[in-house]
Amino acid sequence: MSANFELDEELNNVQQDSIHISHEISIEGENQKTLERILNEIVDTLHEGSGNITDNVIFDQIRSFIKHFNTLKKTTATKVWDIVLSGFNSEIQSTAQDLDINDQDMYMQHRDPLEMYGFLIFWIIGITEQKATSRAAAAEKIGKSARGKGARSAKENDETVEGTSTWTTEKQRAMDLMSKCLELHLSKIWTATHEKETFISLFFKPAYQILENKENIKITALKQRVYKVLCICIKRHNHEFGARTTILQNLQYWEHTPEPMAELLEMLINDYDYSQLADSILRDVSSREFDEAIKDASVPRAFSKFLVKLSEVAPKVVLKQMGLLIEHLDGESYIMRQAIVEVIGNLIAYLSDVEQTDQVKNQIDGFFDILEERFMDTNSYVRTKLLQIAGQLCDLRVKFPKRRQRLTELVIGRLSDKSFWSRKQAIKTLVRMIETHPYSMHGGELDLEEWEIQYTEVTDELKAMITKPSRRRAILKGSNGNEDGMEVDGTDLPAAGDEDEDKDIALPTDEELLELQSSKEYVTKTLQQRYYADAIRFIHLLHRAVPVMCELLASTMKLEVIEAMEFFVTIHRYKVRVANEGIRKMVHLVWMKDNGDEAKSVRSRLMECYWQIYLAPDDALTEKENTALIARNLVSLTYGSTLAELTSLEQLLSTIIADSLAHTSDITISDEVIEKLWQVYSHHKDIPNPQRRGAIIILGMLAKAKPDIVANKIETILKIGLGKHGKADLALARYSFIALQRITGEKKKQKGVVAHDTVRLPMDHPIFVKLSNFIDNPTTSKNWFSVMEQALNTIYLLGEHPDALCGDIIKSRCRTIFNLQESSDSPLDQMSVDTPMSAVGDEPTMSLENAFMIDSWQLSQLLFIVGHVAIKHIVHMEVIEEEFKRRKAATGNEKKKGKENAVEDELDQVVGTTEDEFGDAMAHIRERELLFGEGSLLQVFGPLIVTICGNNTLYSDKTLQSSATLALCKLMCISSEFCEHNLQLLFTILEKSTEPTIRSNIIIALGDMAVCFNNLIDANIAYLYKRLSDSDTAVKKNTLMVLTHLILNGMVKVKGQLGEMAICLVDEDARISDLARLFFTELTSKDNAVYNNMPDIISHMSNARIDEDSYRKIMRFLFELIKEKNMESMTEKLCQRFKNTDEPRGWRDIAFCLSMLPFKTEKSFKRLLEGFPNYQDKVHEEQVFKYLSDIIAKGRAIKPPKPEMKPVIDEFENKLKEFKAKGDEVQETEAKAISAVKKGSRKGGRKPGSTLAGLKIRVVGVPDQTIERRKTRSKKDDEDRGGADEAGEEEDEEEVPPRKSTSQSMEDKEEAEMEDDMERLAVQDPQSKARASAKQSKSKGDRWDTDGDAVMDSEDVSTPIDEREDGKERSVKAVPKASKKKPGPSSASKASSSNKSGPRKKAGRKQKWSDDSSESEAMKEEDDEEDEEAPEQSKATGKGNSSRKGTSKSIRAPSEEPAATPPARARRAAASRAKRIIESDDDDEEEDDD
């Protein structure tokens, strides 16, 4: 029997894979029939009684089959499954019967069979799940490309070696039997707790093992049976602790288990009424900490999914533990914050469906408060999830009107989020809020005006209820009801006198007011008023969102653009009037670059949007009505549109027509709509001009893709557009000309492709006859210029010989103008013109003496025609050249290739082709003939135009000047010679003209000239950059556009002028700032152009003196464009710039730029430390110290932290704090010294205003502080201190013995203290130590830096005092810091300028440094050579009266180490010199008093 079976021992053997079977039979390699026979014998034995499993031989035979289960064929393995499950089922039934009888001896006999059957099922499931799990893991490791091969190989393997099936049906039967067994009263059979738990483990362990396989989770029936087994184990067999541990482990190690574990708890709670396990797990989760620094995010992600799923299926349990779970909102893990936000959303949805008690309402309000706070979460993923939850809350049955407004406001605020995902989700959420809005009382439309009207009416009614007695009485009677039974109908009507009474206002009493407020009608009206107010507020929020949405249409993220388009379609559907603003801007998306499927999807979505809004037929209307509606919609698109909007609309409509013709799109415009537009255009009745104008605009747009639309209606255009309607409305005529130009169709130029033949009409065509008559029609409208431009374009586009017709037009105009011998009757300005023209066509030559009166308006028209004909003629010549190439190419294709052609090709290579000669001839005509040829018509007008432009005071009419300047610009685009001769005149007009239109035209023309004659414009490009600071916005915008085009296309080179364009980044005009942003963004892609020009940008803005806020905005934007690989070198360059800046504002700017760098590596901080000597004396400035401290904080905030960076950061921080403390100490010491001097001056009879005039002390951490210069000393004092050098060299001051006074003894102590302070100040400065070893230069009067420029050393603390003696100039310097050093001289220019005035003036000094290390080394060597002279010079300086032959001092390079500390004697001399300066000040003041 089963005396040898021990369950614990067998389980251990299975886990250790060391199973020993006493009566094991051979399975592998055994004949299939033998195996079948053995199985049949086992079946017969167990059929006799399921308890026969206890027979060792039978049990060992079954175990032998299970041990080799994976090698069995599928039929054999299936039979093994069936034997075990059938036997287990029979044993469970017999056990249940014996338990019902309650015979202990009987049911105790079932213990061993149950354990054996349970063990066999446990073993089989373990084998099959282990195999399935290993196969799934192997499949995940294989890539998608190899996954198919793996599947095929696995399939082939199944055909040869069976037994690897999923066994889903068998596992489901096993789970059912387990559940059936667990429902028995097992405590009677297993009285010991340990033994019972061991037996129960045979069931829950396979259940957990099944859940570990991701494929099993997809089988709902199996999953539900597993849940049932586990729930029974937990509920009835004390498996709670084990289940809790296993569930938490599964969440950590199996990514697919969060949802199944939550579903398990949901079944346990709902079906078995057992929530303790869920409570304990939630408490454990709430106490866990999820560190964001850990790279593995799978653990918090698994727990977050578990919480979200549990809140969906069992929100009541989660709600109880929400007080603990909410703590994760303050944790580091953004994944857990996401989960809690989503859990809160699920709980709000749950609470909205339960009874709305006060407690529930408070809970909902509390959850909404938490959600509103999370809108400011630092992580974009949390904000995105929050927006998604807000959109889901809109779909609830309860609308939460009090909270909806605030949520809408917060969602609109997220439209400006930095994260693309947050912005995209905010748009989707806002669209969902609009679609589910609760304001559907009047059809759901959101027209602001309609709602305001309704609100006003309700407000007036409420006011009338209170103020009008008759209305009040009627309401009160109605509120009382029919308490007294039926009354006569007329009893409730107001009395006859009530109408007069309503005219007066009578306030109700308190009782009447209370009764009125409780009446049903009053309450209804009050609720309506509140309802309308909420709707109006909601609409206002939508209006506020529209400008932001318009900006998002220009986003580079295509998905975001598509969502923004969907928003505008939605609000248009709800009749929000401001939707048109976004729909008009939406049309510009038709130009989006085709970078892939995304761009195509944007354009296709744009066409769908316009189809839905304007072109889709209404099913409720007839076909005729739909045609009229679509035509009306198309015409309305032109109302108030700008040129840019019309251009984009033309591209969109032509694309729709082209796609419909190519059958690539279902969106089209029917022929009936086109015919309706022609009817509107040619309507004989007087219709509004914008309507007729809009019809021809749309027709011209459609004809761009389908020229037949216009070609078949030429007579209609000539009759309407060039007839009386066109003459009355010049704008209509202009668009009619544009429509006529569509006859030729759209020509797309392709590089390397010869142009196709173009449509050309004879010059006697009715179009040109009608056009000539139209041009001759006199008019004084300013629209004439735009009409004439399109008329000339039409002539040159359609005519065979446009030059002949245009020449006749010009000649006709000249005859009309220059034959006037008396004043014109025109009401416009008239002026006398001395014409320098030689001849006009066939007219006789006019002398200079023949002065005549000319209408300035007519002359303006003539010059405009001349200029435009000139520029169009150049285009026409290019067309002729292309036509020549086309014809030659066509002729060449017809010729047969042969020997003759080969000879011709060789000749072409030697002497050139006819095509080259033709091109040279065209270039010669353009350069020399058009403007300088004797037979050219245009050469007559060149001198006239130049004369008018050069004499703006004589020819003062604004229109004439504008036309002449424009004509001059067009003529200059023809010939480089003419351009070069008149370029300076054009620049003069650009600088001097007060008309923004003229300046804008010149700027645009200069851009064209830069393309034609690059060298001429590139040399004078500074004139263009100057216009970036123009006072007119339009000029500035045009300048920026022209420069953007020229720079990005490589027309001009950037030569350090990008600073002006950088200032445009903070321009008040949004269009200019946006264009500047676009320019720098595009420039970034051109070989580090922004990085290379950054020093010039910083220098320019420092000189431009823009405010610090603007400077920071510009730098913050520009540094975002610099690549990280350039940051380290940028750090070095910025540190070096500190040397060249001696103003605190400059220090702050450079420090801010440093703080913008990322500093993510150890090397970057080392660069910062290497440059520390350049700014160590600047860190006392608070803002500089703050910016440098921000760098330290940025380095410490890097995650994960880099250990190698910590020592470098600590070193930098220590240095920074050390020099900051020194600077603060020095400032405090200097303040004390100045205070002591002031105090001493008051005691010694000095004037209160006497200070340390002229004292400059250079100390580490403190900049040069110039206080005041002393007054000019008298001539006698100068002679006492020493004679001046004959060459005007600078001299040191002679020590003047102090004069004793009665108060001298009281001042000795104070003076001694001050002397000690001065001495300490001098000693603390390491740079003053270096200057102690500086030498005199042999050069006379000037000092030169390493670049060879004469400069002043800003570190020299001397104060120049310019005096005159005997007609000679000299400079006297007081050097309080180092009496044994040679004082630095002032430059000759400063000395001469300061000597012209009697009193001394404050001389500004500018420090200049050279970054050339080689030159610095040369200077250092020169200092070493002069070391021998230093003692004598230092000694002479100490005496104070020796004259110097050289006044220069060599400059120590910034990289040099400081010199040794000067001796005490030098320090005492420095303090003594400071004392003498102060005393000499006192002497001067006393003499002035005398």
TrEMBL record:
<feature type="compositionally biased region" description="Low complexity">
    <location>
        <begin position="1452"/>
        <end position="1464"/>
    </location>
</feature>
<keyword id="KW-0498">Mitosis</keyword>
<keyword id="KW-0539">Nucleus</keyword>
<feature type="compositionally biased region" description="Basic residues">
    <location>
        <begin position="1398"/>
        <end position="1407"/>
    </location>
</feature>
<dbReference type="GO" id="GO:0005634">
    <property type="term" value="C:nucleus"/>
</dbReference>
<dbReference type="Pfam" id="PF12717">
    <property type="entry name" value="Cnd1"/>
</dbReference>
<dbReference type="InterPro" id="IPR007673">
    <property type="entry name" value="Condensin_cplx_su1"/>
</dbReference>
<feature type="domain" description="Condensin complex subunit 1 C-terminal">
    <location>
        <begin position="997"/>
        <end position="1155"/>
    </location>
</feature>
<comment type="function">
    <text>Regulatory subunit of the condensin complex, a complex required for conversion of interphase chromatin into mitotic-like condense chromosomes. The condensin complex probably introduces positive supercoils into relaxed DNA in the presence of type I topoisomerases and converts nicked DNA into positive knotted forms in the presence of type II topoisomerases.</text>
</comment>
<keyword id="KW-0132">Cell division</keyword>
<feature type="compositionally biased region" description="Acidic residues">
    <location>
        <begin position="1286"/>
        <end position="1295"/>
    </location>
</feature>
<protein>
    <recommendedName>
        <fullName>Condensin complex subunit 1</fullName>
    </recommendedName>
</protein>
<dbReference type="InterPro" id="IPR026971">
    <property type="entry name" value="CND1/NCAPD3"/>
</dbReference>
<dbReference type="InterPro" id="IPR016024">
    <property type="entry name" value="ARM-type_fold"/>
</dbReference>
<feature type="compositionally biased region" description="Basic residues">
    <location>
        <begin position="1465"/>
        <end position="1475"/>
    </location>
</feature>
<dbReference type="InterPro" id="IPR032682">
    <property type="entry name" value="Cnd1_C"/>
</dbReference>
<feature type="compositionally biased region" description="Acidic residues">
    <location>
        <begin position="1308"/>
        <end position="1318"/>
    </location>
</feature>
<feature type="compositionally biased region" description="Basic and acidic residues">
    <location>
        <begin position="1275"/>
        <end position="1284"/>
    </location>
</feature>
<feature type="compositionally biased region" description="Low complexity">
    <location>
        <begin position="1384"/>
        <end position="1397"/>
    </location>
</feature>
<keyword id="KW-0131">Cell cycle</keyword>
<feature type="domain" description="Condensin complex subunit 1 N-terminal">
    <location>
        <begin position="76"/>
        <end position="243"/>
    </location>
</feature>
<dbReference type="GO" id="GO:0051301">
    <property type="term" value="P:cell division"/>
</dbReference>
<comment type="similarity">
    <text>Belongs to the CND1 (condensin subunit 1) family.</text>
</comment>
<feature type="compositionally biased region" description="Polar residues">
    <location>
        <begin position="1435"/>
        <end position="1450"/>
    </location>
</feature>
<feature type="region of interest" description="Disordered">
    <location>
        <begin position="477"/>
        <end position="502"/>
    </location>
</feature>
<feature type="compositionally biased region" description="Acidic residues">
    <location>
        <begin position="1347"/>
        <end position="1356"/>
    </location>
</feature>
<dbReference type="InterPro" id="IPR024324">
    <property type="entry name" value="Condensin_cplx_su1_N"/>
</dbReference>
<feature type="compositionally biased region" description="Low complexity">
    <location>
        <begin position="1327"/>
        <end position="1336"/>
    </location>
</feature>
<dbReference type="GO" id="GO:0010032">
    <property type="term" value="P:meiotic chromosome condensation"/>
</dbReference>
<dbReference type="GO" id="GO:0000796">
    <property type="term" value="C:condensin complex"/>
</dbReference>
<dbReference type="GO" id="GO:0007076">
    <property type="term" value="P:mitotic chromosome condensation"/>
</dbReference>
<feature type="region of interest" description="Disordered">
    <location>
        <begin position="1235"/>
        <end position="1490"/>
    </location>
</feature>
<dbReference type="InterPro" id="IPR011989">
    <property type="entry name" value="ARM-like"/>
</dbReference>
<feature type="compositionally biased region" description="Acidic residues">
    <location>
        <begin position="1480"/>
        <end position="1490"/>
    </location>
</feature>
<keyword id="KW-0226">DNA condensation</keyword>
<dbReference type="GO" id="GO:0042393">
    <property type="term" value="F:histone binding"/>
</dbReference>
<feature type="compositionally biased region" description="Acidic residues">
    <location>
        <begin position="1412"/>
        <end position="1431"/>
    </location>
</feature>
<keyword id="KW-0158">Chromosome</keyword>
<dbReference type="GO" id="GO:0000779">
    <property type="term" value="C:condensed chromosome, centromeric region"/>
</dbReference>
<feature type="compositionally biased region" description="Basic and acidic residues">
    <location>
        <begin position="1361"/>
        <end position="1372"/>
    </location>
</feature>
<dbReference type="Pfam" id="PF12922">
    <property type="entry name" value="Cnd1_N"/>
</dbReference>
